[in-house]
């Protein structure tokens, strides 16, 4: 692989200068701030946001009386302020006996998966709650403590959510090699629209941490493959495409993380698609062809099934405990004849009909089942998260739809290997083509991001068509494409002036054409004027949709905490 780097002192004739957030050193090095210091500040900001969210949640919980079923939950301890919505179900599943449930007024609930509707909640978080609540048992005379379960699990979830922006920053830098873009996306993700889900015993934060770690393991940075540091924004370099398969050890660890994801949330089974892609699409059909890579694929292909194992185990458990005569006996003979033998009892444990049956019957989950007039506020509340996600997907696919199709169909095409234009150079050029709308993420700029975009497409379809659409607010932290699209919106307006509309990006003709000797006909003042506003000061003017998005994130961070504390929707 060849690496060609242009010094920062030499202006790039095809790219307008971008307002830098870091001071450039005179000797042409990247910046005075190291990546470690950037990551450290990212963690500090994330930890501060989570701490402030905890304080606001406690404050809102003390200032209002909880609505609906949580009104009977005792408010004797601060830990009970974190018990709302799904947390009440998780706590009832974690409680080892009826006494533990009755103490928290979980009406009719008893420890474990006693009722069918509880199977909709994956077992990982109840297991964490039960284990955390069992820690006081080491003290003589103590029993299982729901307060300890809530406090310890909430702390673990908060720590997981603090790590998520850092993981997103590293993932974006691997795919785009652009630190400013990746850092913008990471900072925006701190303002995830469901801050309460990051500090309470809910599976979203650990799920996001496991999923982003899985994506990091499976992603291959072109720069890292050759021992080159990722470039800072504004430095021009050209990298030849590489198609190196992921190492087997990373695939094994990624499969384990996929199982963790599906044990936390059922949509974690989609990680099997990521594994399949990196085993079959990247592991086979490379420069060496199918002959030498077929054995490797066959050896690693069983890893695709690992993320599905938790859901299969849930199905097997339901077959054993929810079917047959023991079903009515366990419930005191209170079930009707139709309820004694549900339809999934005759389908087998590998059909996944039990889980879909529970979701449809008890939680109204199904194709367009949620699309009703009464649910329109919930659908609209998810729009600010779904819009940048869908916009990013659309832009990425149609930036080069032919390459997307060839890459997606690669294992079935003759010749197998699909060549791409050099990633970084293509990104810098396509930012100023009329049809690209100044977008950063395209098929040419980040070809290895295609599998993540495919995953985001499936997730978006499930959220819009099948699920309760407002849970997009909770899952946003685990959807990198949401924040990449949001960062794209923000950075589109970076060359405007304060108080004015965004200016048109400078073209190569405005700055001078590049000559054979590497010099430019444009002056430094022309290059600098593209990044400055009135009065010669660099300014960042957000586009209207970027302003609306950032305003919504800030507003909803506060409002959602107040709604959650009072047991009000959406949740």
What can you tell me about this protein's structure?
With 571 residues, this protein is an all-alpha fold. It contains 25 helices and two strands. A two-stranded antiparallel ribbon has the order 1-2. The radius of gyration is 26 Å and the shape is globular.
Describe this protein with a few key phrases.
two-stranded antiparallel sheet, 571 residues, disordered N terminus, 25 helices, mainly alpha, single chain
Q: Classify the helix fraction into a percent range.
A: 40-55%
The main pleated sheet reads as: 2 strands, antiparallel
* Subunit arrangement of the protein: single chain
Approximately what portion of the residues adopt beta-strand conformation?
under 5%
Q: Radius of gyration, Cα only, in angstroms?
A: 26 Å
Number of helical regions = 25
Structural class: mainly alpha
Which helices and strands, and how do they pair?
Elements (H helix, E strand, L loop, with lengths): L2 E3 L29 H29 L22 H9 L3 H5 L21 H10 L12 H31 L2 H12 L13 H15 L3 H4 L11 E3 L8 H17 L6 H11 L8 H11 L8 H13 L3 H6 L6 H4 L12 H11 L12 H6 L1 H17 L1 H8 L14 H8 L19 H17 L5 H4 L4 H13 L15 H4 L12 H6 L14 H22 L6
Antiparallel strand pairs: 1-2
């Amino acid at each position: 692989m060849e690496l060609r780097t242009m010094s920062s002192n030499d202006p790039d004739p095809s790219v307008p200068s971008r307002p830098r957030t870091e001071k450039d050193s005179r000797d042409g090095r990247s910046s005075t701030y190291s990546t470690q210091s950037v990551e450290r500040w990212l963690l500090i900001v994330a930890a501060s946001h989570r701490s402030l969210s905890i304080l606001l949640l406690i404050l809102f919980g003390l200032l209002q009386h909880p609505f609906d079923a949580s009104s009977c939950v005792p408010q004797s301890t601060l830990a009970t302020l974190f018990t709302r919505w799904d947390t009440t179900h998780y706590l009832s599943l974690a409680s080892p006996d009826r006494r533990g449930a009755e103490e928290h007024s979980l009406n009719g609930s008893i420890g474990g998966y006693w009722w069918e509707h509880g199977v909709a909640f994956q077992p990982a978080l109840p297991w964490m709650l039960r284990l955390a609540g069992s820690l006081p048992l080491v003290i003589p005379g103590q029993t299982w403590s729901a307060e300890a379960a809530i406090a310890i699990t909430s702390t673990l979830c908060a720590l997981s959510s603090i790590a998520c922006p850092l993981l997103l920053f590293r993932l974006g830098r691997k795919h785009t090699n652009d630190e400013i873009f990746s850092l913008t996306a990471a900072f925006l993700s701190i303002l995830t629209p469901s801050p309460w889900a990051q500090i309470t015993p809910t599976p979203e934060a650990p799920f996001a941490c496991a999923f982003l770690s899985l994506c990091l393991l499976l992603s291959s940075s072109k720069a890292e493959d050759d021992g080159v540091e990722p470039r800072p924004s504004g430095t021009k370099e050209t990298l030849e495409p590489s198609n190196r398969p992921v190492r087997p050890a990373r695939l094994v660890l990624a499969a384990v993380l996929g199982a963790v994801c599906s044990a936390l949330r059922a949509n974690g089974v989609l990680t099997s698609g990521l594994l399949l892609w990196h085993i079959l699409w990247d592991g086979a059909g490379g420069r060496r062809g199918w002959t030498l890579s077929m054995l490797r694929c066959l050896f690693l292909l069983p890893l695709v099934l690992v993320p599905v194992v938790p859901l299969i185990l849930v199905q097997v458990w339901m077959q054993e405990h929810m079917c047959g005569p023991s079903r009515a006996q366990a419930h005191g003979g209170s079930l009707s004849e139709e309820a004694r033998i549900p339809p999934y009892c005759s389908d087998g444990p590998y059909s996944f009909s039990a889980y879909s049956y529970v979701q449809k019957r008890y939680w109204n989950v199904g194709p367009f089942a949620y699309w009703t007039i009464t649910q329109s506020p919930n659908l609209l509340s998810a729009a600010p998260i779904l819009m940048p996600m869908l916009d990013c997907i659309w832009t990425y696919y149609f930036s080069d739809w032919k390459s997307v199709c060839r890459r997606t169909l690669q294992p079935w095409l003759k010749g197998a290997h699909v060549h791409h234009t050099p990633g970084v150079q293509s990104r810098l050029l396509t930012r100023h083509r009329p049809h690209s709308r100044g977008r950063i993420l395209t098929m040419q700029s980040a070809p290895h991001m295609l599998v993540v975009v495919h995953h985001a497409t499936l997730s978006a379809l499930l959220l819009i068509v099948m699920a309760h659409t407002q849970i997009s607010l909770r899952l946003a932290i685990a959807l990198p494409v949401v924040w990449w699209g949001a960062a794209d919106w923000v950075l589109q307006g970076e060359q405007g002036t304060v108080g004015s509309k965004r200016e048109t990006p400078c073209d190569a003709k405005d700055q001078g054409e590049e000559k054979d000797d590497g010099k430019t006909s444009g002056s430094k003042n022309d290059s600098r004027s593209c990044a400055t506003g009135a009065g010669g000061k660099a300014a960042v003017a957000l586009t209207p949709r970027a302003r609306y998005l950032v305003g919504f994130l800030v507003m909803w961070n506060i409002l959602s905490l107040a709604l959650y504390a009072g047991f009000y929707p959406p949740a």
